[in-house]
Amino acid sequence: MNRLTFLVVVAVALLGDGLVQSGYAQGKPLRIAAASDLKFALTPLITRFEKESAASVVVTFGASGNLARQIQQGAPFEAFMSADESLVHRLVESGHARDAGFIYAIGRLAVYVSNTAKLTPDENLVGLRKEWHTVQKFAIANPERAPMGVRPAKRSRALVCGNS
Question: How many angstroms separate the CA atoms of 144 and 69, rounded?
Answer without folding.
Answer: 14
